[in-house]
Design a protein that fits this description.
The protein contains 15 helices and 16 strands. The protein has 476 residues and is an alpha+beta fold. The strands form 4 sheets. Strands 2-6-7-10-1-11-12-13-14 form a 9-stranded mixed sheet. A 3-stranded antiparallel sheet has the order 5-4-15, with no helix packed on it. A two-stranded antiparallel sheet has the order 3-16. Heterotrimer of A, B and C subunits.
Amino acid sequence: MDFEAVIGLEVHVELSTKTKIYCGCSTEFGGKPNSHVCPICMALPGSLPQLNKAVVEYGMKAGLSLNCSINQLCRMDRKNYFYPDCPKNYQITQDEIPLCHDGYIDIETSKGIVKRIGVQRIHIEEDAGKLLHTAVGTLVDYNRAGVPLIEIVSNPDMRTPEEATLYLTKLRSILSSIGVSDCKMEEGSLRCDANISVRPKGSDKLGVRAEIKNMNSFKALEKALVYEFNRQVTAVEKGEKLTVETRRWNEEKSETAVMRSKEMANDYRYFPEGDLVTINISDEWLNSVKATIPELPHEKAERFIKEYGIPKYDAMVLTLSTEMADFYDEASKLSKDPKAASNWMMGDVSRLLNENNLTVADLKFKPADLAELIQLINAGIISNAIGKQVVEEMFKTGKSPKAIVDEKGLVLNNDEDELLEIVNKALDSSPESIEKYKSGRGRATGYIVGLVMKETKGKANPQLVNKLVNQEIAKR
């Protein structure tokens, strides 16, 4: 029997507001433990929360970007649970009336199939503190308590780990581009819980689901879903009973493990938060938030394809981050060679960033510098090979391409008389290459070109050398 997975994701996103959701404490990552706290986020007696207006606006902005409808009249609720990282013994969140509902994200699989993944709801809530497990015991850092979150809950529309990864990748790209979160998974500002069950292919009946908590990388998410799918299929085939449970991913063992039985909604005893007023969103407020939404990554990709004529793959890669897309956009316009700009951004520039664990925002040179490099190559002043040397120096120093070329004497040799002499010497030293060429093996000229480039230390104009080689061979 063939089985399929039924997958839904719950994504927690820390918002990039300067202060927490119910108080004025800083949301800055890091800091001395328990230094970004106050009576409100520590839930001391007599303290009262006040909802941060920016949190509601960021939530609306995310919802509108994900094609959601906005509940213009909604409220906050209490979700009751006891855990050491929850200072109030309850979390202020949204239950029955979330801020956003019924949206979607379109993804495209590796097979070219476009699939729509429903976004069931987006609600705003507060984060909990952080537990630090040490040799002497468990410590609690409440700096993160009260940091604003949105929880984005998908419909169970994904059927493969690939689809789940594509959905999360596009979600992160959109949220980052609209500026509501930095989406740094390594710092916990984007975390994902995955719900998965299995069923026979063709069946409409849902299986028994397991929730895998706190996935903090795309690789971990995909590996965990693959493992969990196989585990559940094996259990069903053996006739074992599956139970609704919460599991964690063990990276070292590459397996999931049981944490606890899964809580149901009634376990949390939700009820309206009495210390906060109803959220009433006017049409004017909603429209003002709509006006702040920039061009989204998939819209930008479509424009790049249409405006610059680059391949779809290039456009998708270049729009994975706002910084990369904006850098490429400007470099393309200035260089008037969009494909060359794409090749440099996806090739040497990305390689240098990855090798040094940096982002486009860390680059020392500007789009105008990359455009200048492309223009130097297109004008025949330097070769593409020399361009690779130049971009390395640009990356290290931030100097302009022209300054580097002048400083290092990298201008191509375009002296036809001088190059003609070198070409003829190379041909004299390799008569067999001439014979191979005349017998139909056109690639034989490559050896001669290589000799000339070696003799000129790579400074000969490759196009001119090729022309002269072919010209002189024809005379012999």
